[in-house]
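task queued by scheduler; priority normal; single chain, no ligands, no partner chains; default sampling; output format set to structure tokens
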Amino acid sequence: MDENLRPLSIVDEIIRDLRGRIVNYVDFGDFTVGRELQSHVVELKASRPFDSPKSFEEIMQDAVLRVSDFLEKTHGAHLLGLGMHPFMKLDEAKVWSHRDRQIYASLNKIFNLNQHGWLNIQSFQLNLSYSDEVSALKLYNALANILPYVPAISASSPIYESKIGEFVDNRLFFYEINQKEVPSIAGDIIPEYVNSFEEYKKITVERYSQDLMRMSAPRCIMHKEWLNSRGAVIRSDRKAIEIRVMDEQECIKSDVALSCFMRSLLRSFIRDEKTYLPNNILTEDFKAVIRDGLDAKVQHPRGDTARNVCRYFYKLAWESASSEEKEYLGIVGKRIDEGNLSNLILRDVAAKSKRKDFREAIQTVYSSMIKNLVENKVYT
């Protein structure tokens, strides 16, 4: 984006400048720079699993600095994290129009990509490796019990189209409805419990492929594992479970903190074989959490609000965390006690709008997020 936070659909130009031609991604060794569906969104992805939280932070912060420096020098542009762009209108966005464009054209025929749930969302996608089917299923079923409450901590999308949304996590609200024409693709976002890979494929890939077939969908999107849009997806191609419910944060350090929280909490769940809640309760709690965040009223036995459930989760995570993970967990603890990023953004926009125009107040707060990303500084 430019100095005025105007989104710039220039990812193809950036990749061409980096690689010499337009491709899907550019390899920098430890990380890759790639395109997304939206031409104003660039993906920064690690080339291989991290050895430790510190290596996560070091490698991805190096990626941020190198790409940020290149953008500023060549295009006068900047990177911004968070779950949604605060100003962008749908007619300002463009869909990637180069390699694989036929996939997006096919999706557009069924879902209409001209909506926020496609064009104005960013997320921190965490991949958790598994060794075999048993370990994968344990991870997957434990995640179903954790994911409904995680957005209470990770929400960072309170504003879009220059207005305050009705949800604390507006990204997930739009994500829930962006494929409503074929509900089986996203399900209820919170994964159903499964007892085998075969069962998982039957209720996900096979089911939505059959639904797409009835709609005469193009073959390029049929039987695709990556089309599954639940909050956790088993990616057999890389033996990992991909988590999709966390909004992008303001800096790499905060993303690492969420990673440490999730990993240590899952360790506790799997080790102690916690009693799992019914799927309908988890789904209802998820809907409450994306609307009201930490203040959401929930049905969890460990707390009547999402904040209390997250405090319980934090205790479990701390007890299972390594010494290095504990160095980051304090960031999550502070978000639980003092508010997620959406809460902090709304707090500061409200304070600044008392002295200046509302749009100017938004721009001031979000401009500081650009600085936080480059400096790897947690917003408080």
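post-processing summary
- Residues 11-375 form a domain with the Creatine Kinase; Chain A, domain 2 fold (CATH 3.30.590.20).
- The chain has a mean pLDDT of 96.
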